[in-house]
């Protein structure tokens, strides 16, 4: 390969996996991240790493064994509960190591620790990219690279130079909340949740609870709603949000509404946005995308896996092709059809998530 400088916008899972594999091949890469530090914000809940995508990427990155020391095969447990009776109607035991769970923060830390010191430039986001691999930073400075990789998520700045397409509201919203130290402080809810994920749903609404490695239970109230549904609701007022949600879920079993009543913190509004399907582009000199920047889709267990695989495959192509353009063409030729197929499946799965069928556990 006759080039040396690669810039990655975004220190999410896909960007970090790409950087790791590039460094394994001796290539020069810098990751530019808008957050000021690795622990600037919570990293979310748990992820199931699939054997044919996420685990493949971790193996390529030389991190699969370390991943296995952190992963929780027991976290694959899936429990479905009738929302009106509280009865457990589905309780799927873990299936070996095919999709073990890991906290997103743990996985990100594993990737960060694998990189050479100074690889990530914290607090230095790329705010604009242009064909020819020229970027502009938030401080007004600019630089040129051999390739700029947009791994900068749903609202990608790099995507603007390739397609200009923005995510659209899906019609579904998530309200996130949680239970800290659940085993000690909320033993009944801890036992009800099990070792993995609990879901209950009916009438276009769902409640989801996920156990993390720390004993925290991360919960999501999920429902169809207009994009402006929360305009008059102050999310800084936890009591008002709780009252609204309890009214919205009125008639559900008290044991399930206890997740809302016993919640001991704030609520976060997370409207679900997606990119249109298909989302594709013509190969452009010096630019490409991976992960949510390329194929933002409903969070049904595939997004992080695809981002990791994207990053590993792009880095491998760059390490083995004779030119940047050849590498990017090869990568996009595999990534785009795969992501389009998965985005179609996730669009259908989103409706399953909010169906009345407790056996269609799409989350």
From TrEMBL:
FAD binds at residues 48, 104, 292. It comes from Amycolatopsis plumensis. Residues 6-212, 287-333 form the FAD-binding domain. Signal peptide: none annotated. Its main location: cytoplasm. An FAD-requiring monooxygenase active on some tetracycline antibiotic derivatives, which leads to their inactivation. Hydroxylates carbon 11a of tetracycline and some analogs. Belongs to the aromatic-ring hydroxylase family. TetX subfamily. Consists of an N-terminal FAD-binding domain with a Rossman fold and a C-terminal substrate-binding domain. The keyword Nucleotide-binding applies. Its cofactor is FAD. Keywords: Cytoplasm, FAD, Flavoprotein, Monooxygenase, NADP, Nucleotide-binding, Oxidoreductase. This is Flavin-dependent monooxygenase. Monomer. NADPH binds at residue 41. It is found in: Cytoplasm. It is an enzyme of class 1 (oxidoreductase). Coiled coil: none annotated. It catalyses: a tetracycline + NADPH + O2 + H(+) = an 11a-hydroxytetracycline + NADP(+) + H2O. InterPro entries: FAD-bd (IPR002938), FAD/NAD-bd_sf (IPR036188), TetX_monooxygenase (IPR043683). HAMAP family: TetX_monooxygenase. It holds the Pfam family FAD_binding_3.
